[in-house]
Specification:
- It comes from Salix koriyanagi.
- This protein has two domains: about 170 residues, DNA-binding pseudobarrel domain (At1g16640 B3 domain), CATH 2.40.330; about 180 residues, no CATH class.
- The chain is about 45% helix and about 15% strand.
- The chain has twelve helices and 13 strands.
- The strands form three sheets. Strands 1-6-7-3-4-5-2 form a seven-stranded mixed β-sheet, with helices on both faces.
- Strand 12 and strand 13 form a beta hairpin.
- Helix 10 runs antiparallel to helix 11.
- The longest helix has about 60 residues.
């Protein structure tokens, strides 16, 4: 960040600039870049347009600027790949005219090219400051105006790198460069794309109208067709997007994984039996509660799961009680057998006692005779 601040400090101060820290979603996967609402409202046009990014090598890249999203879409991917941008790199965007950014890169691991970048930034500002918000109001003044390029310290490099930018009509721009490239269009090439509008679920009349929006991106491509249909059915059952209130800034692939797992759990709940283990129920419940903590609308699944767990507990209690009854019966029979054995012992002892009592008098006489007998 210090390196980026140094770069920004050497830029012509009459032109606005902004520093962006690259995160994975900027340079991989979706390749989307948000420039920040405040900066865009202050310096960029209010309608969608083409914005050019000029790298340090002088090549110009056309990108699609979406005013409502305050971000760059088609074309940014090409720029990021060509410049080998990585997560952690810091990029300085210098708005040198209403539709052109001069771009400088501070690498996360450092680079000798950064020293060259700072050398190139001892610039002589050659264009008057302009308020891009008022561009439409001053259209006549802007017609046929030639904006001189930024001059480098080295005149030879200056003659090779510079290009002349002509504003030939209001809101249009032509660039003459040996490396002119084509507009890559609105959609991001891997299927994730920026959404032009925010759709309320009430406006979704069929599956064909159904898009999964996360942080302004349509991520339908992250789910299979089957999962998309199942998720659409779940949303229809609740008459709302289940992910509508997710925390801002969650990774698109993480959200797609959450949606897929929610669908899987919903299917598992509907396929569950009385014999389903308590461990499975507990796993589903913990997962859904974690999703709910992130803002997913899964309360209806948790409610259904809770009722099924209660019924399952009752069913399992019947089985447990039945087993306990069987064990109690076996214990009763065992005790009855022991009781019978005790009764038999008591009867035997009673008979023995009666016999001894009948012979007790004879026993006394025999004892006395033996005791008094001569030695």
């Amino acid at each position: 960040m210090i390196r980026a601040k140094d770069i920004q400090a050497n830029l012509a101060p009459e032109f606005p600039s902004i520093i962006k820290h690259m995160v994975p979603s900027n340079v991989t996967g979706g390749f989307c870049l948000n420039l920040g609402r405040k900066f865009c409202d202050a310096h960029l046009q209010e309608e969608d347009t083409t914005i050019f990014l000029e790298g340090e090598g002088g090549k110009s890249y056309p990108t699609k600027y979406l005013a409502r999203k305050s971000g760059l879409s088609g074309g940014w991917r090409c720029f990021a790949i060509d410049h080998n941008l990585k997560g952690g790199d810091i990029v300085v965007f210098h708005l040198v005219n209403p539709t052109t950014f001069k771009v400088y890169i501070a690498r996360v691991n450092g680079s000798q090219n950064e020293n060259g970048a700072l050398g190139l930034l001892k610039l002589e500002a050659c264009v008057k400051p302009m308020n891009c918000k008022n561009l439409s109001k001053g259209g006549e003044e802007m017609k046929n105006q030639v904006l001189k390029p930024l001059l480098l310290d080295n005149p030879e490099e200056n003659s090779e790198k510079n290009m002349v930018i002509h504003v030939t009509d209001l809101g249009t721009r032509s660039v003459h460069s040996e490396n002119e490239s084509e507009d890559l269009g609105f959609e991001i090439t891997d299927g994730i794309r920026l959404s032009e509008t925010v759709v309320d679920f009430k406006e979704v009349k069929s599956f064909n109208d159904f898009d999964i929006l996360v942080n302004g991106l349509v991520i339908n491509c992250e789910l299979s067709k089957r999962l998309q249909i199942k998720y659409y059915e779940l949303c229809c059952s609740q008459k709302s997007f289940l992910h509508e209130h997710l925390l801002d800034g969650l990774n698109c692939k993480l959200v797609a994984g959450m949606l897929a797992e929610t669908i899987n759990i919903a299917d598992a709940i509907r396929a569950s039996k009385l014999t389903t283990s308590q461990n499975d129920f507990a796993t589903w419940e913990n997962t859904l509660k974690s999703f709910q903590g992130l803002g997913m609308n899964v309360g209806f699944l948790l409610a259904r799961l809770g009722r099924l767990v209660t019924l399952s507990d009752k069913s399992k209690r019947v089985k447990v009680a039945t087993l306990e009854r069987v064990n109690a019966e076996m214990e009763r029979r065992s005790l009855e057998a022991k009781l019978l054995e005790v009764k038999e012992t008591m009867n035997r002892l009673d008979f023995e006692i009666e016999t001894l009592e009948m012979n007790s008098e004879n026993l006394g006489r025999v004892f006395e005779k033996m005791a008094t007998a001569h030695w």
